[in-house]
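Appendix B, example 12.
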Amino acid sequence: MGNRLEGRVALISGSTRGIGRSIAELFGSEGAKVAVTGRTVDRGQKVVQRIRDAGGEAEFFELDVTNEASVRDVIAATVDRFGALTTLVNNAAPTATVATTQKPLAEYTTEEWNAILTGTLTGNVFWASKYAWPHLKAAPAATIVNISSGASTMGQTGLGAYSAAKGGMNSVTRTLAVEGAPHDIRCNAIIVGRVVAGRSDTGAGMIKNTAAIGTPVQIADVTLFLSTKDSSFINGDLITADGGLEMNGDVHMA
């Protein structure tokens, strides 16, 4: 057990698997009280148990970021359970919807567009930050980390709605940084490249001439840094963690 997040209370959206799970487990190992959230109860409970088995403190809250009441209530429940909220990680994304709607922008239905924007930006960032804000203002040196994507900065076919949502996330990151600064709240985003996030994900289709395929733990390490005093002079930034993906110009990243 470390102590870099001792006394902190962190809520990580979409933390039952992949990048979110790695963030939750790392935060728990560094002393934070962790609100593990997601739609799959059994997976969430397993993450909580892993954190507790390692000596950390965590609780699972069922969260649907496409439902405003769910976002509001989970934030309130986290504060009721742990007494505060100091650290918000906006990680959730409608990955299944994104994966099944890869097509030219003009072929999206309005329903598909709205589903991706709500799950990635409106619920995951706007509602979460809105309802967390009073608690973050009350906390010393509070932080928000938005998990963005290379899709927000690279022109790619088939990912129009997701790219727009993540690009919006980047813009909101800077807004939150400016509005939060008087209240000692910092907000940064991580531009994530291609990450192998599950057993069935082999990195197929990725270029091989850079170290472009990452792991959830590598993104968790960056998230931890941005959530501690070690990054106290970093605010409103888009931190790229993509193994050289954007530099290499690969356009096949999903």
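Helices lie at 18-29, 41-53, 68-82, 95-99, 110-138, 160-180, 216-226, 245-248. The longest strand covers residues 142-149.
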